[in-house]
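BUG-418 | component: ligand-complex export | severity: low

The export step for magnesium ion jobs runs without errors, but we want the raw record kept on the ticket for reference. Input record follows.
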Amino acid sequence: MAQLSDDCFAFGGPMMSVDEAVGLITTRVNAIVDLETVALVDADGRVLARDVAAPLPLPPFTNSAVDGYAVRNADLPASAEQAFPLDGRIQAGGLAQAPIKPGHTARIFTGAPMPPDAQTVFMQEDVRIDESGRIVLPPGLKRGANVRPAGEDIAQGQVALRAGQRLRPQHLALAAAFGLTRLDVVRRIRVAVFSTGDELASPGEPRAASQLFDSNRFMLMAMLRRLGCEVSDLGILRDERTSLARGLKQVAGGHDLILTTGGVSTGEEDHVKAAVESIGSLVLWRMAIKPGRPVAMGIIDGTPLIGLPGNPVASFVTFVHVVRPTVLALSGALPEPLLPIPLRAAFTYKKKAGRREYVRVSLRRAQDGGLEAIKFPREGAGLLSSLVETDGLVELGEDITNVEPGQDVGFLPYASLI
Ligand code: AMP
Ligand code: MG
């Protein structure tokens, strides 16, 4: 399990910028070093534990990139078309037979090995066949055209996949192209998830008139699973210090991270702070981010705890900026900075300098073909519809105070966030 010191998340400043938060997390959270070996088909989303050097070049042998006719470079027609008698036929998967006779051409198909001595392929669309069945090749084709040399993609021995890479389908394709059937990955990060609040009922259970169904837990668990975590669903803790403390203490040893939502503001009924302080240590990070209120960072028996705010949109946004980098750091993953894509704002917005804001937006194709971001019409951090009916977040940096229609802004699609 992760072992962190009690003061690991202490922070001196009054307000913490998003970049400071991510910086603190990436420097202070220790990566888990336990590995496991998984079948390639099960490796999607996992974090690669060791570099993979290419055991063979890609492509493994020089082959034709098109269906056509292979010739020796010495025979390439220079200024006038020229007729070549056929000498051989090579299919994909077939053997490159004897060298082509000088002045001849071989029929060849995409992916078939080049015959020894032939270095160039004419596309079948560019040739014609004369009355006596010879292949008439046009002049002017570049030497080596339409051929994929062995190793042009990846040279043998080159590090092709880096330790810390979060594996996506294309990485699995590369491992398969090397003939690998298993990969060493970091074991899944174990995360305990709690909601807190007397007003919450679990879906499937009776709901009192003054209660609402717990929605955050299902969002957070799904986000964690998308990050490759093994999630323990620990339900709802009541707004009461001792039962909160008992619940949190119980799971600390067996998990790499404890995640809670709700109860971290500074109201009288926000008990997470006191509960954690009674069994471990806790700091409230007042992050300069909207939506998002204080985020609690703590350590219980060496296990890190993150307490997210209860409002669903604040919970979502702070997950992205605090939980995501923590999970990546715990799993030894290479940092994956969020890179907003520039597009045009179709809205007006005013904000204070010194904090970063995230605006929920939908995308629309403007009349001139450019992409525009439309702001969700309402602002509340409790509006689940605002997350459901939009495509992503516009990030407004600390120094921006004003957005006018037509201005370039940075867009983060939801799909890029987790
Ligand atoms: P809190 O951060 O506990 O003060 O909660 C802020 C707001 O978010 C309150 O309106 C809560 O009812 C709501 N809330 C807290 N936790 C959840 C949850 N798990 N699911 C949905 N709403 C929540
Ligand atoms: Mg609460």
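Assignee comment: Attached the raw record above. Residues 63-148 form a domain with the Molybdopterin biosynthesis moeA protein; domain 3 fold (CATH 2.170.190.11).
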